[in-house]
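Researcher: Before we compare anything, I want clean individual predictions. No alignment, no superposition, just each chain on its own. First chain goes here; please echo the sequence and then give the structure tokens.
Model: Echoing the first chain and its structure:
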Amino acid sequence: MELVRKFRRWVWAGGSAEAYWARERRLPFWEHPWFTRIYRIALLSGWVAVILFFLLWNLWWATP
């Protein structure tokens, strides 16, 4: 229950320190630290998905 209260206080205070930092500097959303982190994760997982797809496709297609 204490964790829930801490989380509520954290959300009410405006989230993480980096969100506060970005708000103070009025950064556009694409320069926000969380956006760049999410974008990086999506980009990397997208490349992993493409590579896995081609590996599996080649295994299936190349096997007699």
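Researcher: Okay. Second chain, same rules.
Model: Second chain and its structure:
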Amino acid sequence: MCVVISMGGFLFGYDTGQISGFLEMEDFLQRYGEQRADGTYYFSNVRSGLIVALLSIGTLMGALVAAPIADRVGRKWCVSGWCVILCAGITVQISSPTGKWYQVALGRWVAGLGVGALSLLVPMYQAETGPRHIRGSLVSTYQLFITLGIFVANCINFGTEKKTSTASWRIPMGVTYIWAIILGFGISMFPESPRHDYRKGKVDKAISTLAKMYGVPKNHRALAIEFDEIKQKYEEEVARGQVSWIQLFKAPRMAYRVAVGVALQALQQLTGANYFFYYGTTIFQGAGIENSYVTQMILGAVNFGSTFLGLYLIENYGRRRSLIAGALWMFCCFIVFASVGHFSLNRDDPPSTKTAGVVMVVFACLFILAFASTWGPMVWTIIAELYPSEYRARAMSLATASNWLWNFLLAFFTPFITSAIDFRYGYVFAGCLFLAAGLVYFAVMEGKGRTLEEIDTMYVWKVKPWHSSKYVFPETEPSIMEKRRASHASNPSTNPTTIDDNHETTV
């Protein structure tokens, strides 16, 4: 299940990785670029910015539109539906005639609708379905597959870039159909999110799904406890009435949490990772690297391999410590990258300062190592854990839309900014990374080993984030779990499931 649903991340990464290579391919340039007086072709900043960035406008819209549909139809079938939209966008791009660069851009916008919706639905489904003890790693596989998608796209681009026909870019673009079909058909074989099923009155189905995910019988104590927490939260939802966008901001600590989620997703983009992924081929050509496609493959491999480290860190060192350390590490890398690029690299004749170019590639790899093991996977995990079930789809859609808004702004304006301030652009990202470390320290709760309902309670009770990793619910204010068990003990007839002191559950 984890592999199939994470194909949503693979599609995101694959599209991100392939566009950087397209911009330098001979046939793509001749068909959709502009011609100079000497007969050579190039992409203006506006044209390249629109081709790259319109995907992000589509993803922003897709993330917002998918939320209410997911609440009504369910997470599972929405994923299949948005895969169809994604395939339609690829068809528009791949059929673009010569000179119609705007059709490529329009196709990327349509494909972006699907990618954006999947970027909301996949982490949501993983968080609502996964057992608490591996939830962080499970959601982080979304980012793992993003990195795998980027790497595979880099490899396919490298294999086709020497072709002089449309095959150079149509082959990697057409391969996208395969990944979308795997996800669209594959998820139909898995159950709906148990939390969504419960809210729709399918209680038995929700219990069965939870039991499958935990690998335990339906009457297991751990299952009974988590199910009670889900039930308690749902009863609170019913008492508050139907959810609206206004209620989203009026509910306990929800405005605060929406702001935290929006800021986290914005800062994930402002780490500067997509500076390398979208324009890496162009960046490293400017740094004097002979075959920038090889450099992109190296970065993609580092990105993919480092994400496995993130799967270990998130469950062993927690979200907060990893994110803070990662932000400070990336801060240092960008300071060196920008300083060498501005002060040591001869930008008029990059091959004459080859050492500077090599140093920049090394620190780019060190940056990717930090990003892929911390901010890449962990932000998606935190966003999936941040909100209670009734508000999760809407709140996550706003946070995800923030990610895609900043994705668009960076993708579109990066060519203009780098033309004006060259590699000093890295100092901007370094400043944002320093702010990111502060945001995590002062605003993000530690979710390691907690259920989604426990994390929600810590936000509502205003637990200090820097104390959250060791927080223990006080006896004077028992946790949800304890309240439910006490209620069942006093009125056993209302609940057919009881728990004895030997940690066995009977029905």
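Researcher: What stands out in the second chain?
Model: The beta strands are 34-35, 41-42, 498-499, 505-506. Additionally, The radius of gyration is 24 Å.
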